[in-house]
Amino acid sequence: MMQLITSIIIQAAETAVWQILTDPQVTSTCMPGLVEWEILEPARRFRIVVAWGESGNNGGGLRIPAIIEWTELIPPTQLCINIRLFLGNNTLDIAGTAQLQEIENGQTRLEISSSFDAPTPVMAQMVRNALAKILKPFFHCLRNQAEQLSL
User: Fold this and answer.
1) Which CATH architecture has domain 2-32+69-150?
2) Backbone phi, then psi, for 25, in 5-degree steps?
3) What was the pLDDT predicted at 58?
4) In b/e form, how buried is each residue of 91-106, taking b as 16+ CB within 10 angstroms?
């Protein structure tokens, strides 16, 4: 079982961060390499396709489809999510939690944790590297969106 945990501080109230985090239109604009997305079930299930590779941001590269499901929402503090990645003939399930905590001066701490079981060590390392490259700009964009909303 591989686990990733990261935390960021956002200069915005917890409710503003929650609003951005649970808005599929905003989150879709923040996803690096996103080439397709659709709502399968409003406020619950989404299908995305992300281009990954040398020209991923231009829609080229390897296309990776995924189903995203929000499994538990506790406004405005916790969002649990399952992501099923389709990697050729394999699937990879990622369970994640976004935990929000209001801290001093109207700031919010957003802690993101995720875990997954990869079928091979090589795939585990590939997914870990890919998630690191995707999540950093994704959460940076969400932070900017929430901070602009709070102005």
Assistant:
1) 2-Layer Sandwich (3.30)
2) -65, -45
3) 56
4) ebebbbbbebebeeee
